[in-house]
Amino acid sequence: MVSMQAALWVVVLLVVLALLFDFMNGFHDAANSIATVVSTGVLRPAQAVLFAAFFNVVAIFVFHLSVATTVGKGIADPGVVDVHVVFGALIGAITWNVITWLYGIPSSSSHALIGGIVGAVMAKAGAGALVSSGIIRTVVTFIFVSPFLGYVFGSLMMVLVAWVCRRMAPNRIDGWFRRLQLVSAGAYSLGHGGNDAQKTIGIIWMLLISTGYASIDDKVPPSWVIISCYLAIGAGTMFGGWRIVRTMGQKITKLKPVGGFCAETGGAMTLFIATALGVPVSTTHTITGAIVGVGSVQRASAVRWGVAGNIIWAWILTIPAAAFVAAVAYWLSLQLF
Fold first, then answer.
1. Number of domains in the chain
2. What is the pLDDT of residues 50-101, one digit of tens each?
3. Are 25 and 192 in contact (CB under 8 A)?
4. Whose CB among 215, 259, 295, 333 lies 3.0–4.6 Å from 84's, allowing a Cys bridge?
5. Is 82 in a helix, a strand, or coil?
6. Per-chain mean pLDDT for the chain
């Protein structure tokens, strides 16, 4: 058992580790926000990351903390959560993020964190310590629902735009959508910040509740948690994840400004819906589905289905892989502190 004095230092170190995960989330998922706008040539890479980071942080003023509440209070029994569980969850999520970043695979930081929490909690107290299997089922279900919605919205936007612009000259269409893609990229970055920053807010809130630095009855976490998490994800986005940008922006399908606009708009719509419902979804899954939807409307052969298939395998493996690493990290932490 950790003494109260030591516990304070452990809590501080775990908050720093959580903010590091948040930074990596922005770094890892920057491609989701900027891949299309960079690949279509609307913005240069340096401009795009600043643009996306700005809207990641502005999301603090737009969205209610529904996702943070789901992660902080809705997954694990507060009586089971301790510093060892939080350490295991964060190490599991960070490890999976690093592995997929090294290989340029656009996996889900969100599901890595959920998998980490589940793995660490189960290592300590078994499946019965999970607050609601319904929430876990919802998160797992949205592994498939969020890319499907992205696909549907992205493809519908592409069909709608094609119909509206059917009599316009291609050069004029390209010029208009180069401007409009700034709007869609901003909306998507807003949704990305709103959903993803809240997951880290949630796990820090979970930590503070379990160690007595916050009450389970609090409606919202401390303000410093909210501000620091939004700033951390924005900072991560500013550094970008160029390996993944290339996969998202060019390897799945070739995009023009009109396609980038439709993909980002479809992805943003999905993220806004999920965040309003308090569902922690993957921004990676969402934008990938939207990009595939846009490409398939043009023609099925426009999508490199082999690349998309490899990405789907990474999605399927994310939760169990992060859970396994988290369980191992939990047991190791018992020996460390």
1. 1
2. 888 999 999 999 999 999 998 888 788 778 889 999 999 999 999 988 888 7
3. no
4. 333
5. coil
6. 83
